[in-house]
Design goal:
OB fold (Dihydrolipoamide Acetyltransferase, E2P); 15 strands; 5-stranded antiparallel beta sheet; single chain; Rossmann fold; alpha/beta; 2 domains
């Protein structure tokens, strides 16, 4: 069962989609929102597996909203405009549905969701699903170069599309892993999701400064400066306080 939230400023569009989804028992609608601000609140509160996201909304667009979400669920865009299709796939959306949504296209999109989940489960099964501690070594291959890296030496993981850039010493190789998949495997006592694009090694922090909108700015060993989003800053302060 996939838990879903519908984010669309048109109530009729939300109702029509809910009606269509009654034919798909694998999806449960657990919430809805009429704009980006409400959408972010619903994602934080309900932690859905999937969001149906309108692009053109008053204030912030669906794309703007995704930039503010620390951990994005699977996304299926719904829109009346077809010129956004390419950008939708650039942000790794599962699918892009034109309004009015056709049942066959909805079925295809949900099939992609199932396939994505199956791939993630297979990857978890293949990796043994164990949580990696800072003392574990990981194999990193980038082009012709290979490293066995102790996780304690990794100061930062950075999302680059479907890849993650691994920062250790002077090296920054790419690995074919999403940041969400890495977060699931890394020990949260050592590695912290600072924002949508970065996971940092807490032991590599040199300096912490207040930043815009209640966020924080971290100076890491190696000279990297990483912003902690406002929501994650609350968690960071709770973790680091006595």
């Amino acid at each position: 069962m996939f838990k879903a939230v519908i984010i669309d400023d048109e109530r009729l569009a939300r109702n029509e989609l809910k009606k269509l989804l009654t034919d798909f028992s694998e999806v449960e609608i657990i919430g809805e929102a009429a704009n980006a601000k409400e959408g972010i609140e619903k994602i934080d509160e309900l932690n859905p597996d999937l969001i149906f996201l309108d692009i053109q909304m008053p204030g912030k667009t669906g794309f703007d909203m995704l930039l503010e979400v620390d951990r994005a669920p699977h996304v299926i865009f719904t829109t009346a405009y077809d010129e956004f299709a390419l950008k939708a796939f650039e942000v790794n959306a599962l699918d892009y549905l034109m309004k009015p949504v056709e049942p066959k296209r909805l079925s295809d999109a949900l099939q992609k969701l199932k396939q994505a989940e199956e791939k993630e489960l297979a990857a978890i099964h293949a990796s043994g699903r164990g949580i990696l501690s800072e003392n574990d070594q990981v194999f990193v291959k980038d082009g012709d170069r290979c490293w066995f890296v102790k996780l304690a030496e990794v100061r930062l993981f950075e999302s680059v599309g479907n890849y993650a850039k691994v920062y250790f010493g002077p090296h920054k190789p790419l690995i074919l892993k999403s940041l969400n998949a890495l977060e699931d495997r890394l020990d949260d006592k050592t590695f912290f999701r600072a924002n949508r694009k970065h996971i940092i090694n807490l032991h590599m922090i040199d300096k912490v400064e207040p930043y815009f909108n209640g966020g924080l700015l971290l100076d890491l060993k190696g000279g990297d400066k990483i912003e902690v989003s406002r929501r994650q800053a609350v968690k960071f302060k709770e973790m680091m306080s006595l």
